[in-house]
TrEMBL record, chains A, B:
Function: Transfer of C3 units between the cytosol of mesophyll and bundle sheath cells to maintain a nitrogen-carbon balance in the C4-dicarboxylic pathway.
Gene Ontology molecular function terms on file: L-alanine:2-oxoglutarate aminotransferase activity; pyridoxal phosphate binding
Subunit structure, interactors included: Homodimer.
Protein name: Alanine aminotransferase 2
Superkingdom of the organism of origin: Eukaryota
Length: 471, 471
C-alpha cells in the first residue's frame, strides 16, 4: 500500500515525541531538564518568533475586509501603498469576491502580477497562462508526480539527501525514486557524471526515468548551485529528454556574497533554449524567503515547454481541487511584487527584509562554526536555504546502542538530543545519505538572541554523548 | 494512466468554453446574444454577488494584521465581539503566529472550538483529536481515498448521481467506483435494497468494497435524507463492515420546513452505536452553508471509529502537506461557533444569515417551478444544498443531433444553452444518471433580482430548442 511506504521525517516520530514533551512541560513544569521545546526540525520561521512583513499583512487584512477601504480611520491605520495595492488586487478579482473560488490556476490578475515579477527577476518574459497558483509548493509537486508517474516502472531522479516531500510524493503516486548523490566533500556539489551514471543504471533496470528534481538553494544541504553547473544540468535534461523539476522555494535565501540565485528558466533561456527544448517546472512558495509565511499556504508553479495535451491534464488535476486559497494567492502576488523605491512602505519593508536576511546569515554562520568546533562533527557552509546538515561521525558504541534500541543511529542521536535539551532536529536518514554516514538537519531559525543558548545546550549534550559512547 | 481516466465535469469542457465566451464579451462587446456569462455550474455564491458575513471577515482581518488590536481606531472600525474573538484565537495559536505552519491536523485551540461546535450541534461529545482541518472538504476526501484504495480491486459505493469529486478522486487513486442509484421518482431517495444489491454485485466480481459515500444534503440532487433512512444507512454500514464517508458540507442549507439536518454521527450515537461499531468520517467546509466562503479553502473532517494504526496513517498523509491554510482554519472555527445571542454582532449576523438562507429558499422554489412549467422537464424539490437537477426529456431528434456533433445529449443541450443565453450549467453525464435519462445541474445561486431574467432566458432557449428538435 502506497501510503504505508510513504515516509515524512520532518513531521515524524521525533516531532511527535517532542509534542508529547511539550504537553508534559505544560502539565508538569520543571519535570524535564529544559523549559521549552525548540523546533529546529522544520523551516517554520514565524513559529520561532519571526514577524511577518508589515506591508504584506496590511494588504491581506484590507482584502479580507474590503469595507475598511471605505472608512476614514483606515488611512491612519494602513500605509498608503497597502491601501492602493489592496484596491488594485480587488479590482483584479472578478466581482471583488475574495470569498469565491477562482479560476483553477488562480486569479488571472494575480497570475499576471506573478508573471511580471518572474520576468523582472529573470530578464526573460513570463506568461500568466503558465502559472498555477497553489497552496504552498507541495500541491504543485504532488500534481506533477501524479502526472508523471504511471506505475513503479516510472522513475524520478532525486538528490540524496533530499527534502522528503519528494520521496513521499513519489511513494504516494506509486513511482520509483532514482537517487543521485550530492557530494558532501565538495560542499554538496551536484556532479553530472553521477547523474548520468544513476540514469543509466536505472534505465538498465527497465525504469523509464521521466524527470530530474533539483532543489536550489538546497534542502537539507544549504548549497547554492553555480551558474555553470546549472547550465550543465539544463543541457543534461534536454539531451536525456527529462522534465526538469526545479524546487526554487529558497530563491531569496542566499547568505554568501559569491553566490546568487538563478532560476533554471533564466539559465535555459540564457543558453538559447526555448519552450520546445525543455519541459521545465519551477516551484515557488510564500513559506520561505524572508517572508516565511508558511501558514498562509501560498505558492505557484510555472510550467513551460509542455505540449497542449499535457497542459490540459495539469489543468484538470488543478481543477479537481477547485483552486488554491485566495489569501495565499494574494500573498504569492505580493512576494513577487514587493514595495518599490518611492512607495510609502518601501523603507520599512526594506528594513524588515534586510533585518531578517542578515540575521539569518549570522545565525547560519554561528551554528555552522559551532558544529565544526565539536568533536566528530563536520558541517558544510550554509550558502542558502534555512538549514545546516552536519555530519555526525558517531562512535561505534553509539551505533551499537542505537541498534539495541532498534533505532537508526542518527535517529538515536536526535532522540537523545531532544530528551536532554528540548532541541528538535531531523535525523539524516529522513533525507537519505551515503550509507554508513550519519547527519542531522537543523534549521537556522531560532531567534538570534537564543542562538548562544542553543549552542551551549547542544555542545553540552554532544560532549556528554561522546563521553558516554566514545570508542 | 489514472489522471487520464479522471473526469471533473463541474470545471470541464463547457466551463472552459464559457471562459472563452467571457473573454470574447470583453474584447468584442455585443458580439454574442447576451451580455454576461452566468455561472450556474458551481456552488460559488460569492462569485455571483453574495456578500461575506461581516463578523467572519472582521475576525479574519484582525488575525491577519494583529497589530490592529493595539490601535485605538480599531474599536470604531470593528465590532467588540470580533475584537474579542480575534484575541481569543490569537491566544490559542502558539506564539500568536498566524504565519506559521500549524500542527498537521490544525491548530489545537481551533480544533477545540470546532469540536465544541459539533458537540453543541449534535448533543453528543466531539474530540479535537478527531478533527483534521483541511483546505476545504476536497483534501479530506482525497486523503480518505488514498488511504482506502490499494488497487482497482478496492471499491467505494457512491451515489449516482454524485458530486464528481468522488469519481475523480477514486480514479486518481486507482480504485473502483461501485455505483448505487438514487431514485428520482421518490425525490432522489436512497433505497437500502439497491445499496445491498450493488454491494453484492460488486463483491461477486471480486471487488473489496471498503466504504459508502453519502452526500446529505445531496449534491447534485438537493435531497435531504429522512432520519429513518439515515438510521438504516448506519446499520447497513455496521453490518457490512463499511466505512461511512458522510459528505455533510451542506448542513446549513435546508429550505423546507419538514426536513432538518442530522449528522450521521448524531444518528449513530442516537441508536447506541459507539466508536467501536462504525468507522465514520464527516466532511464539512466553509465553502457552503450561508457563509459560502469558497475562496478561503477551509474545512475539516471528523474521523471516529478508526483503529490507532489507521489514524496514524491519516496523520502521516496530513503531515506530508504540512497543514491547511491558517485563514481557512480560523474560518472553520468561526462557522462552527458563530456569534451568540447577547454578542454585539449577533443581530447583524442573524440578519445576514437569515437573509441569505431565505433568499436561497425563494430562488430554489422559483427555479424549480420554472423548470416544472417547461415542456419535457421535470424537477424534484430542492430540499437543501445549492442545486436543482432537472431531468430533460430530450426529443429523439435532439439526441441524434448530439450524436452527429459527437456530444452526450445533455452536454449538447448545455452547450446550446450556453451559446444562446450565457447560462452555464453542468450536464448530468458529469454526475452519472440512469442510462437513457438526461439531466442538467443548475445552481440556485444567481442573485435574486436576476432570477426572473434567468428564467425568461432559459424558457426562451428551451422553447426554441424544443421547436427545433421536437419529434
Amino acid at each position: 500500500m502506497q501510503v504505508l511506504k510513504c515516509e515524512y521525517a520532518v513531521r515524524g516520530e521525533i516531532v511527535i515525541h517532542a509534542q508529547r514533551l511539550q504537553q508534559q512541560l505544560q502539565t508538569q513544569p520543571g519535570s524535564l531538564p529544559f523549559d521549552e521545546i525548540l523546533y529546529c526540525n522544520i523551516g517554520n520561521p514565524q513559529s520561532l518568533g519571526q514577524k511577518p512583513v508589515t506591508f504584506f499583512r496590511e494588504v491581506l487584512a484590507l482584502c479580507d475586509h474590503p469595507s475598511l477601504l471605505e472608512k476614514e480611520e483606515t488611512k491612519s491605520l494602513f500605509s498608503a501603498d497597502a491601501i492602493s495595492r489592496a484596491k488594485e488586487i480587488l479590482a483584479a478579482i472578478p466581482g471583488r469576491a475574495t470569498g469565491a473560488y477562482s479560476h483553477s490556476q488562480g486569479i488571472k490578475g494575480l497570475r499576471d502580477a506573478i508573471a511580471a515579477g518572474i520576468a523582472s527577476r529573470d530578464g526573460f518574459p513570463a506568461n500568466a497562462d503558465d502559472i498555477f497558483v497553489t497552496d504552498g509548493a507541495s500541491p504543485g509537486v504532488h500534481m506533477m508526480m501524479q502526472l508523471l508517474l504511471r506505475d513503479e516502472k516510472d522513475g524520478i531522479l532525486c538528490p540524496i539527501p533530499q527534502y522528503p516531500l519528494y520521496s513521499a510524493s513519489i511513494a504516494l503516486h506509486g513511482g520509483t525514486l532514482v537517487p543521485y548523490y550530492l557530494d558532501e566533500k565538495t560542499g554538496w556539489g551536484l556532479e553530472i557524471s553521477d547523474l548520468k551514471k544513476q540514469l543509466e543504471d536505472a534505465r538498465s533496470k527497465g525504469i523509464d526515468v521521466r524527470a530530474l528534481v533539483v532543489i536550489n538553494p538546497g534542502n537539507p544541504t544549504g548549497q547554492v548551485l553555480a551558474e555553470d553547473n546549472q547550465c550543465d544540468i539544463v543541457r543534461f535534461c534536454k539531451n536525456e529528454g527529462l522534465v526538469l523539476l526545479a524546487d526554487e522555494v529558497y530563491q531569496e535565501n542566499i547568505y554568501v556574497d559569491d553566490k546568487k540565485f538563478n532560476s533554471f528558466k533564466k539559465i535555459a533561456r540564457s543558453i538559447g533554449y526555448g519552450e520546445d527544448d525543455l519541459p521545465l517546472v519551477s516551484f515557488q512558495s510564500v513559506s520561505k524567503g524572508y517572508y516565511g509565511e508558511c501558514g498562509k499556504r501560498g505558492g505557484y508553479m510555472e510550467i513551460t515547454g509542455f505540449s497542449a495535451p499535457v497542459r490540459e491534464q495539469v489543468y484538470k488535476i488543478a481543477s479537481v481541487n477547485l483552486c488554491s486559497n485566495i489569501t495565499g494567492q494574494i500573498l504569492a502576488s505580493l512576494v513577487m511584487n514587493p514595495p518599490k523605491v518611492g512607495d510609502e512602505s518601501y523603507a520599512a519593508y526594506k528594513a524588515e527584509k534586510d533585518g531578517i536576511l542578515q540575521s539569518l546569515a549570522r545565525r547560519a554562520k554561528a551554528l555552522e562554526d559551532a558544529f565544526n568546533n565539536l568533536e566528530g562533527i563536520s558541517c558544510n557552509k550554509a550558502e542558502g536555504a534555512m538549514y545546516l546538515f552536519p555530519q555526525i561521525h558517531l562512535p561505534q558504541k553509539a551505533i551499537e546502542a542505537a541498534k539495541a534500541a532498534n533505532k537508526a543511529p542518527d535517529a538515536f542521536y536526535a532522540l537523545r538530543l531532544l530528551e536532554s535539551t528540548g532541541i528538535v532536529v531531523v535525523p539524516g536518514s529522513g533525507f537519505g545519505q551515503v550509507p554508513g554516514t550519519w547527519h542531522i538537519r537543523c534549521t537556522i531559525l531560532p531567534q538570534e538572541e537564543k542562538i548562544p543558548a542553543v549552542i551551549t545546550r547542544f555542545k553540552a549534550f554532544h560532549e556528554a554523548f561522546m563521553a558516554e559512547y566514545r570508542d
